[in-house]
Amino acid sequence: MTDAGYEPSTLLVIGVDGGQTKTVTALATAEGDILASAVTGPCNHIHEPGGLERQYRTLRAGYEQVFANAGLPMRRLASVHLGLSGSGDRPTVERVYDTERLNLTSDPIIALSGAIPEMEGVIVIAGTGSAAFGRNAAGDEVITGGQGYYAGDEGGGSFIAQAAFRAIYQAADGRAPQTVMTERFLRHYGVDNLRALRNRIYGDLTRDQLAKAATLVGQAAAEGDGVAVSILRHAGHELGRLVVATLERLHWGDAPAPISPIGGVFRSGALVLEPMMETTHERFPQAYLQEARFEPVIGALLLALRALGRPIDEALLARLEATRHRIMYS
Predict the structure, then answer these.
(1) Over the stretch 60-117, which tens digit does the pLDDT of each residue have?
(2) How many CB atoms lie within 10 A of CB 87?
(3) Residues with pLDDT less than 50, the chain
(4) How many Å apart are CA 74 and CA 61, to the nearest integer?
């Protein structure tokens, strides 16, 4: 699992992407060669009873497993960087790792580091919810959105699903155009009428299960359903407003502004991206789309390497690219 040229004296670093459903730990050399990864459980909700101990066990398991997967004995690390969803408890995290340097941040920071290794630009995250995170050349950082499905999440999966459910029931009332989404939603949720669907919406379906309806909206829009297209364009414009607000709060000016989209909503492609950039260009015409270069756990590795003073140059990025196949997600 390790390179033939690996030497025991090589400095090692760890990057951690701690999420709401799983935690990914990656081990790499200071030269940028990824050696192995490990997947463990979630490490958020530390304020619940037993939450701190669960976070410790999850992170410790990833720490031990990543060395085992690399076929190496555990030893002191040169640097560790963690990006955790929600929050992390530093004293708990310090118990996990034997390391010279430890940095604990939030998940948007490692997502930006992975998507835009230069760490100057904006990432737009649109999964179940939505948020934007940006950083300028001066190192100022801003998070916009991310207020949850009651107070925000405009343009995210929950927002799209809610708009679709409303459109279906308005069409049934004769208040809005008919849409192929009606039949698709009934079939997807295993019911044969809208009353039964409503019972499921307010009954046994979780928020994440409801948000998955955004995929059905994308499929209907791709086949030309006008109502679905309108919903996705509205979502795109809302995501563009997140971008504009983030750039304005960063006092971006006239410099080129890379925008990197992340999350399942963007699987709908131009149906969301075009309106997002239309709204963005009204205020920042120099903004441009940049595909995320790496996943967040590699962003955490890059930040661990930065802490060592390692230049983030193309040679390093190429070595990460060549060994990224060693990152597992299940």
Answers:
(1) 999 999 999 999 999 999 999 999 876 668 898 999 999 999 999 988 899 999 999 9
(2) 13
(3) 1-5
(4) 12
For residue 263, how far is the Cα from the chain centroid?
6
| Fold of the domain built from segment(s) 12-117+293-326 | Nucleotidyltransferase; domain 5 (3.30.420)
| Amino acid (one-letter) located at 28 | A
Compute the distance between CA of residue 262 and CA of residue 192 in angstroms, rounded to an integer. 35
pLDDT of residue 46: 61
> Would you say domain 148-289 falls under CATH 3.30.420.40?
yes
- Mind listing the pLDDT tens digit for each residue in 201-215? 999 888 778 888 999
Estimate the crossing angle of helix 181-188 against helix 194-201, to 10 degrees: 60
For residue 86, what pLDDT is reported? 66
**Residue 104, φ and ψ in degrees, nearest 5:** -125, 120
Strand partners, 144: 132
Counting Cβ atoms within 10 Å, is residue 151 exposed (0-12), middle (13-18) or buried (19+)?
exposed
Among 274, 154, 173, which Cα is nearest to 214's?
154
